[in-house]
Specification:
Radius of gyration: 20 Å
Keywords: Isomerase, Metal-binding, Zinc
Mean pLDDT: 96
Number of domains: 2
CATH topology of the largest domain: Jelly Rolls
Distance between the termini: 21 Å
Number of helices: 6
CATH architecture of the largest domain: Sandwich
Cofactor: Zn(2+)
GO molecular function, one term: zinc ion binding
EC number: 5.3.1.8
Shape: globular
Low-confidence stretches: none
CATH class of the largest domain: Mainly Beta
Pfam families: MPI_cupin_dom (PF21621), PMI_typeI_cat (PF20511)
């Protein structure tokens, strides 16, 4: 029986484009002033998070998945399917694209990557790259080789609270000055299309993957339009952002007290703003900004009290 939440310690990742917000806003201990990502709920070998409480304290999420599958309702699958990150883009991320599962397994030996972004914070005027203007694969490749970035790339202004669904095959980049929570498939395969000719501390440019990028990019670009909706539930507003075969993603805005009933074998929870508490049969657990946890299969209902903004997801 696992009737208490799995509270997880994030893994911090240094990036050429990272900054200090993950410390300044969320209080995480950073390895450097260029920390770009907190892998908050992760069983990926490149950064597995660790359980901080209960009978599995000290184990990685991957170990719990492998050895105690009942915690997750005996769900099938070799790997824990989801990965939740918080990204601090102090500078522009590279323009990139991810493969689908078939291409990812065939060429990289891991899942593809469909993902989505919730904008936690964004500087005035900041923007993302989301999609492209090429009409054929040949045109896409030629525009990349010719460096016609202004003509090729679609740019969109963003603000706090925006949500974007980014299926595999979508050319994309997070711009500088944006902090996001990303829900994605558990994959670390990224094909870099363009990196602004940046050099690292050793004076080297980062590798580009033009052939793979052309292979996997959806042409022409398709704008997905997830059907978002909001409902009241006690003192909470529950917004459904997206429901896909990879993940369902929700925002829970609690101002007071709200009761929840499980709709999936397990649920991933990330607190982005505010504080309060989670109440389950086993007891009460403090919720503060930057808390990440999984509600396991044995918890069928729970109560949240306080003033909180939470992103929740399930596979």
């Amino acid at each position: 029986m696992m009737n208490e939440p799995l509270i997880l310690a994030p893994v911090l990742q240094e990036k050429i484009w990272g900054g200090k917000k993950l410390h300044d806003v969320f209080g995480y201990d950073l390895p450097s002033d260029k920390t770009g990502e907190a892998w908050a709920i992760s069983a990926h070998p490149n950064g597995p998070s660790t359980v901080k409480n209960g009978p599995y304290q000290g184990m990685t999420l991957a170990e719990v998945w492998d050895q105690h599958r009942d915690v997750f309702g005996n769900e099938k699958g070799e790997v824990f399917p989801l990965l939740t990150k918080i990204l601090d883009a102090a500078d522009d991320l590279s323009v990139q694209v991810h493969p689908d599962d078939q291409y990812g397994m065939e060429h990289e030996g891991e899942l593809g990557k469909t993902e989505c972004w919730y904008v936690i914070d964004a500087d005035e005027g900041s923007e993302i790259i989301y999609g492209h203007h090429a009409q054929t694969k040949e045109e896409l490749e030629q525009m990349i080789l010719d460096g016609k970035w202004d003509a090729l790339l679609r740019r969109i202004k963003v603000k706090e609270g925006d949500f974007f669904f980014v299926p595999s095959g979508t050319i994309h980049a997070i711009g500088g000055g944006i902090t996001i929570l990303e829900t994605q498939q558990s994959s670390d395969t990224t094909y870099r299309v363009y990196d602004y000719d940046r050099k690292d501390e050793q004076g080297n440019t980062r590798e580009l993957h033009v052939k793979q990028s052309v292979d996997v990019t959806t042409v022409p670009h398709i704008d997905p339009a997830p059907e978002m909706n909001s409902v009241k539930q006690g003192d909470a507003t529950i917004t459904t952002f997206v429901k896909t075969s990879f993940f369902d993603v929700y925002k829970w805005e609690v101002n007071g007290k709200a009761n929840f009933v499980a709709t999936a074998p397990y649920t991933l929870v990330s607190v982005l703003h505010g504080n309060g508490k989670l109440i389950v049969e086993a007891g009460e657990y403090e919720l503060t900004k930057g808390t990440h946890l999984i509600l396991p299969n044995d918890i069928k209902e729970w109560t949240i009290e306080g003033n909180l903004e939470i992103i929740a997801s399930n596979a």
